[in-house]
Amino acid sequence: MGGLDGEQKQLIKKLVNFRMKEGKRTRVRTIFYQTFHRPARTERDVIKLMVDVVEKIKPICEVEKVGVAGTIYDVPRIVARDRQQTLAIRWILEAAFKRRISYRMSFEKCSFAEILDAYRKRGIARKKRENLHGLASTNRSFAHFRWW
Questions:
Q1: Cα-based distances in Å from 145 to 50, 61, 72, 77
Q2: Measured on CA atoms in the order 62, 5, 28, 35, is the torsion positive or negative?
Q3: Digitized pLDDT (tens) for each residue of the chain, 148 residues in all
C-alpha cells in the first residue's frame, strides 16, 4: 500500500473513519486491507477499482425540503464535491452492512461484493443513487424555489 497517491490515501482514510466504531481504528483498517487484498476477479488494482466505484456512485443532484407559503416542496439542488464523496462512501458501506445482515457473511466478503457490483453499475448503492436522481428529476419543476 506504499505506492498510493493522495486521493487514494484520503479515500482509504475516509473509509476507515466512516466504519470505525468506539475508536477501534486498527480493527477496521485490517478489515479493509483484507477486503482490498482479496483476489480480484478483474485485472485492475483493487484500490483503483474503489476510486472508480466512488466516482460511479457519486450523486450529482439531491433534493432538499423547502417550505414556501406553508407548503413543503422537494427542491432539487447540485451536490458539493466533498458531499458527493461522503454520500458515495456512506451508501457503499450501508449496502455492504445490509448485505452482511441478510446473507450472514463476513464484512470483508460483503464489502468486496458491493464494490464489484457498484463497479458493474448494479447493487444497492447504485440503486440508491438512481432513486435520488429520479426524485430530483421528478421534482425539477420546483427548482425555481431555490434562492441561492
A1: 36, 15, 11, 10
A2: positive
A3: 556 677 777 777 787 777 776 777 787 777 777 777 665 555 567 777 888 888 888 988 888 877 778 888 778 888 888 889 889 988 988 888 888 776 777 777 788 788 888 888 888 888 999 888 888 888 877 777 666 5
Name residue, grid cell 429520479: 134
- Write the CA distances from 21 to 29, 111, 114, integer angstroms: 12, 17, 21
Other residues' Cβ atoms within 10 Å of the Cβ of residue 140: 13
Distance CA 139, CA 134 (A): 9
Instruction: Tell me the helices (H) and strands (E) count for the chain, helix number first.
Output: 6, 2
Q: How far apart are CA 135 and CA 62, in angstroms?
A: 8
The position carrying cell 424555489 is 145
Distance in angstroms (rounded) separating the CA atoms of residues 62 and 79: 6
